[in-house]
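Suppose a colleague, Dr. K., hands you the sequence of a protein chain of 133 amino acids and asks what its three-dimensional shape might be. Before reaching for any lab equipment, you can write down a predicted structure in token form. Begin with the sequence itself:
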Amino acid sequence: MNFVMKAAMGGGPPDVGKMLGGEEKEEDPDAAKKEEERQEALRQQEEERKAKYAKMEAEREGMRQGIRDKYGLKKREEAEAEAAAAAEEPAEGSLTRPKKAVPAGCGDEEEEESIMDQVMKYLPGPLQDMLKK
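The predicted structure, expressed as tokens, is then:
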């Protein structure tokens, strides 16, 4: 109620002068020192947080390595690098996809004849005669 009476009498609210750009607050002489201490505290907290998470990640990596050793697994990065190297190796100078390797014995005439001979064994006599001609 007192505030309303002062406003009505012309005194105005206490912050009106500040809003109009008048009487600025003097800076605390220790404000710079306090701000520096606050910044240092924030920096220290950030370092502690990073150290905490680095420690947690190191523990996790230790557990992962134990599992890899137990089951004979490779690290994901190593496995991906090996797969990428294997994929890039045959296709270095080629613009097309790498050709599939032909298994040994495929396409050899001698092999085809022996397969034909094996098939002929299971056919009835008259059919064998017909195919030999």
